[in-house]
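Now read this:
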Amino acid sequence: MININSVTLVGRITKDIELRKTSSNTSVCNFTVAVDRRFQSQQNGGQSADFINCIAWRQSADFLSSYASKGTIVSVEGRIQTRSYDGQNGKVYVTEVVADNVQIISNRQGASMSQGSNSYAPSNQTFTPSVESSFGNMDDDFSNTPSLDISSDDLPFY
């Protein structure tokens, strides 16, 4: 049996990123991503977003602190982690997404960006969207791709 712990989120960062350093000088930042729901729950008073706690380490944390701020739309790929610690009122349980890869989709002003979490580019550099993370102009998605000649014999489910 194979167990897979994988999550992908697309949403807005809810507050500015604060970069911290561990005692071994490793970069880390905690951030929250507001992810829209596909439907509105009547039980929760019509809340239409979930607020997911995330943590990024090393290059991902450095990248976020340099290029992301409140309102930035990001794509977060990672894994769900649960942990606990002793708080003032007893044991506290935390569930969060540990980010393996973070990409900026667009900033607050709507300018499209796509830079991987391991990339460092000066702020005056033009960002070119990549195929795997471009959510820009959806009308032109297939206009520059070569056409495929597929017959019904090639389809296994036809």
Notes: DSSP finds one helix and six strands in the chain. Confidence is low (pLDDT under 50) at residues 110-139. The chain has one domain: 7-120. The first strand starts at residue 7 and ends at 13.
